[in-house]
Amino acid sequence: MALYDDVIQSLRRANFKYLLLDTLPEPPPGGRLPCDHFLAELQGRIRAGGTDIPGLRVLSQFQMGGRKHILFRVLPQIVPKESENLAAELNGSIAIATEQHKSFPVPNLNDGTEAAWGSAEGRTDVYAGVILPAARPVDIIRLRLFSPSGRPHLHHIRVVAADCEGPTGPEWDFVRARLEGAKDFTSVITVPPLADRSVVQIELDQKDAHWKPRRIWGFACLRSQGDLPNYLKVGSGVYVREMEIHVRE
Question: Out of 31, 82, 106, 124, which residue is the most buried by the measure of CB atoms under 10 Å away?
Fold first, then answer.
């Protein structure tokens, strides 16, 4: 187990996020290198049907070359509370957006850090969200706001969902929603001008025809239809520090 832990720590220090295991018909022969012992122990845990794999989380399993392959996420030393967030990159979700500012790339949307994603300037419609590992009926979307120096960068948004990505991107449907505490569900949500890093909670209308288990969830700002992207006097960018997705149990 000591050698196993050493390899996990080495993966973390090298900033490896993923590990792909090619399961073999027989355990790999014992070797002198730590990785040999690591693979032997990992294979043994898989064959024994173990679900507790220290330092790793199973993201997907698939067949290739007549053998099962398993994709793991290498967990950080301390698993953050964001592990309950379905949208987290830690849980295998992939951030997507129709555009990005070069200094605020798309992966920032769900990486669990304070780094923000932001759109380019312009009048095009902006869509951003995450692709989940499996379709889920989402109840709550939380957005951590980007309002540096009192300059709120999010104003009007619409909740969107899709089943898959098409040739030109997801085929989005709009889902009625409301801010936590609001009475009515609406198509367009007005995000208040809150302080930097504030979190707004959005509740989805489960009676909406498009509310069902979906693989892709996100939000949109239709700048071409008059949605206001932010509260700035100059600039038309849409920015968010983090997007979270939660399901009420």
Answer: 106
The per-residue pLDDT for range 227-236, each reduced to its tens digit, is 999 999 999 9
Convert 75-98 into a string of H (helix), E (strand) and C (coil).
CCCCCCHHHHCCCCHHHCCEEEEC
Domain ranges of the chain: 2-74, 81-246
| Contact yes or no for 230/239 (Cβ under 8 A) | yes
Phi, psi for 73 (deg, rounded to 5): -100, 125
Q: What is the fold, at CATH topology level, of the domain defined by 81-246?
A: Jelly Rolls (2.60.120)
Q: How many Å apart are CA 186 and CA 37, to the nearest integer?
A: 56
* pLDDT score at 47: 78
Rg (CA), the chain: 21
Eight-class DSSP state of 181: T
Query: Tell me, what amino acid is at 137?
Result: P
The whole-number average pLDDT for the span 21-47 is: 72
pTM equals: 0.75
